[in-house]
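Ticket reopened. Same input as before:
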Amino acid sequence: MDLLDEGIVPEHAREAKAEARAFAADEIEPVAAEKFAAGEYPWDVLEAGMDAGLVAADLPEELGGRGFDIQQILAIAEEFYRADAGIGLTLMLASFGCELVEQYGSEEQHEQYLRPVAQNDQISGLAVSEPETGSDLAGMSTSAEKDGDEWVLNGEKYWVGNAVEADWLTVYAKTGDRDDRYGNYSLFIVPTDAPGYEAEHIPEKMGMRASKQGHIVFDDCRIPEENLVGTEGGGFYALADFFNHGRVVVGGHGLGIAAAAIEEAEAFVHEREGFGRNINEFQSVQHILADMQTEFRAARALNWQAAEKVKNHDNPGYWAAMAKTKSTEVAVDVAERGMQLHGGRSIFTDRRIARAYRDARIPVIYEGANEIQRNLIYRQTPR
Ligand SMILES: Cc1cc2nc3c(=O)[nH]c(=O)nc-3n(C[C@H](O)[C@H](O)[C@H](O)COP(=O)(O)OP(=O)(O)OC[C@H]3O[C@@H](n4cnc5c(N)ncnc54)[C@H](O)[C@@H]3O)c2cc1C
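Engineering reply: fixed in the latest deploy. New output:
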């Protein structure tokens, strides 16, 4: 059973998918359980991913990347997350935030910051969420004030992928106090060795353990004035636009985890015996497996339809929010059912089903909790 078959994937993205599948089989699957247990940053797998040309592949070819589009990145996400969500997140996050610099940044910023990431000499991250809120993008309090030819940042960020490991981050900070709160934010490139930048890892997580997030404190953190990305006050709109289409890839995170859960459930019920037969012979078990597949394939069809809409700029926020919501919730649902079918063995921490169950709790939250997605779907419904 190939749940992540290439039939639904546009032809130009199939080569990237095949590369990601081969890499996942060789480099992620064999170490997934061990890396999950260790809960450490998987530098070795990240470096192998770089050697394979599958890290920061979305950055433009002229800067050293491969210029992959959203459909190619979605194809990679499904395969990586099927093998392990934590490692998948680490590999995909190595260039997080770069797209904003690519779209809104200057030529100089492209050369100085994007090129090293595209060439896999550096890694980046995106710092938006704060200890007091992650959902309210116009309610963040980290500030940036102009002082001569520098910006001075103060405040805290939380949950930031690569906060400790990255060379630089795209940071979202408050630069104004106008009544229109959407015009009060700007984006900045902050090198992690800037004076006044401190980061430490957040506490141990139950899922995606082979990825690392950090808590950042900016204490009069000084960066040059030219590190403003785009226009002052344009940060909210730039970020909303970025999330609006990037979320279609988070749907792929859910699909990869869901595929892993269904595979595990299928394999288990065909081996496990009870009442003198294999438990797959009970009709109620068969119906559960049938429902898991039906839900999965419906989500995947929606997700790939959404990816095309996003690529064609056809109401992308609406489609990406729907795909993210559906695919990530199907992951939670099939992981839960797969756990039940595993009986008591479901709770052994080294089981792949238990990993999928714990990992599935995360994409329903990150890049905007699904309640926020529902707000976006309703608001952007074509009427
Ligand atoms: C593993 C992981 C990696 C992450 N990586 C990053 C990263 O690299 N960079 C970054 O900036 N952030 C990152 N995040 C943060 C993530 O984006 C936030 O956790 C998310 O946006 C939710 O914010 P919050 O946790 O503060 O929840 P809150 O905003 O406090 O919301 C809590 C809950 O309240 C409900 N809620 C909130 N607002 C509404 C509403 N308007 N309507 C209905 N219900 C609502 C929802 O159920 C929501 O889940 C990461 C998070 C995780 C778990």
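The chain has a mean pLDDT of 97. The longest strand covers residues 150-161. Please confirm and we'll close it.
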